[in-house]
Amino acid sequence: LEAFFSPKMLAGQRVLITAGPTFEAIDPVRGITNLSSGKMGFAIARAARQAGAEVTLVAGPVHLATPRGVRRIPVVSARNMAQAVMEQAQQATVFIATAAVADWRPASSAEHKIKKDGSGEVPALAFVENPDILAGVAASERARSGQLYCVGFAAESENLLAHASAKRARKGVPLLVGNIGPATFGQDDNALLLVDAQGHRELPRASKTELARQLVAEIAQRLGTARQ
Ligand code: CTP
Ligand code: CA
């Protein structure tokens, strides 16, 4: 009932969200990934849907239920994710990048399982850098012309405000959201630092569900002022 009567802050918006880790194959049975749980991104997808948006969630490999009314596009690698996002970004009005995208992938992935050869020698892994999905979307015509509002996330282990401000500039996004430590991967609560052109403010520690609602409200407010 509460959701029914509340004003739909994101009515008419098409929100595209990335969430979870990516998985970069080494061979058919092994790969490189990280500890992102996807919980924050899924919570934001749910909150944006409840706020009246049409929501597409491009999700790496996580076993979380798809929020009701949200369209989920499952992906594995950073390159899969980049491709899905570039397609979907053509229609989106808001892009929120919460995914912990692997920064590097193995330079090549073996067709067959790599076997021990008995000599005790270990395989050497060479890496190449993955595409920066958020920076790519932020540099697109839709984003630069103001039709697509981009929000980035940052996981830092130190000096959050300085790193988040620098990351906001480097990515070219109007809003950058920092996870206030200690490490929030997998936990059900979090605290967020919002950094935009006006400065910064903190959303104090709360459940990811509650923080997602607050963040959706903050984004809706910024869309309103950007378009008036
Ligand atoms: N991101 C992305 N594609 C990548 C790497 C990051 O879209 N290849 C997005 C993340 O989803 C997040 C933001 O960029 O919204 C910042 O990610 P983060 O890992 O904190 O920053 P990086 O630019 O990768 O720098 P570093 O990991 O060295 O701090
Ligand atoms: Ca990174």
Automatic annotation (TrEMBL):
Positions with a binding annotation for CTP: 103, 113, 131-134, 153, 167, 171
Pathway(s) the chain acts in: Cofactor biosynthesis; coenzyme A biosynthesis; CoA from (R)-pantothenate: step 2/5; Cofactor biosynthesis; coenzyme A biosynthesis; CoA from (R)-pantothenate: step 3/5
Domain DNA/pantothenate metabolism flavoprotein C-terminal as annotated: residue spans: 10-221
This enzyme's EC code(s): 4.1.1.36, 6.3.2.5
Single biological process term from Gene Ontology: coenzyme A biosynthetic process
Bound cofactor: record note: Binds 1 FMN per subunit.
Gene Ontology cellular-component terms listed: phosphopantothenoylcysteine decarboxylase complex
Cofactor names: FMN; Mg(2+)
GO MF, one annotated term: metal ion binding
Keywords: Decarboxylase, Flavoprotein, FMN, Ligase, Lyase, Magnesium, Metal-binding, Multifunctional enzyme
Region called Phosphopantothenate--cysteine ligase, residue ranges: 15-228
Catalytic reaction(s) noted: (R)-4'-phosphopantothenate + L-cysteine + CTP = N-[(R)-4-phosphopantothenoyl]-L-cysteine + CMP + diphosphate + H(+); N-[(R)-4-phosphopantothenoyl]-L-cysteine + H(+) = (R)-4'-phosphopantetheine + CO2
Function summary: Catalyzes two steps in the biosynthesis of coenzyme A. In the first step cysteine is conjugated to 4'-phosphopantothenate to form 4-phosphopantothenoylcysteine, in the latter compound is decarboxylated to form 4'-phosphopantotheine.
Recorded family membership: In the C-terminal section; belongs to the PPC synthetase family. In the N-terminal section; belongs to the HFCD (homo-oligomeric flavin containing Cys decarboxylase) superfamily.
Protein name: Coenzyme A biosynthesis bifunctional protein CoaBC
Species per Swiss-Prot/TrEMBL record: Melaminivora suipulveris
Residues represented out of the complete protein: 180 to 407 of 409
